[in-house]
Amino acid sequence: MKLAAILLVSIGSVGLVVTFVYMRIRTEQLKRWREEHPDG
């Protein structure tokens, strides 16, 4: 039972980190895109 809890916590942490990094990359791409195409 303890192992399952540890697994859930570690998977949740990894998911959070991956989501955070993904959002950071997305916002960077959007910023770059707006700079390249100012008319929208």
What are its keywords?
about 40 residues, mainly alpha, 1 helix, rod-shaped
Structure description:
The protein is mostly helical and 40 residues long. The chain is rod-shaped, with a radius of gyration of 17 Å. The termini are far apart. The mean pLDDT is 93.
Summarize the topology.
Elements: H1 2-36
Compose a concise summary of this entry.
The chain has 40 residues and is mainly α. Helix content is 88%, strand content 0%. The longest helix is centred in the middle third of the chain and has 35 residues, at 2-36.
Average residue pLDDT: 93
Pick out the low-confidence regions: none
Tell the overall outline: rod-shaped
Alpha-beta content class:
mainly alpha
Strand content: under 5%
Helix/strand order, N-terminal first = H
Q: What's the number of extended β-strand segments?
A: 0
Q: Could you describe the largest sheet, including whether it forms a barrel?
A: none
Q: Please give the share of residues in helix.
A: over 70%
End-to-end distance, in Å? 53 Å
Counted by DSSP, the helix tally is 1
Rg of Cα set: 17 Å
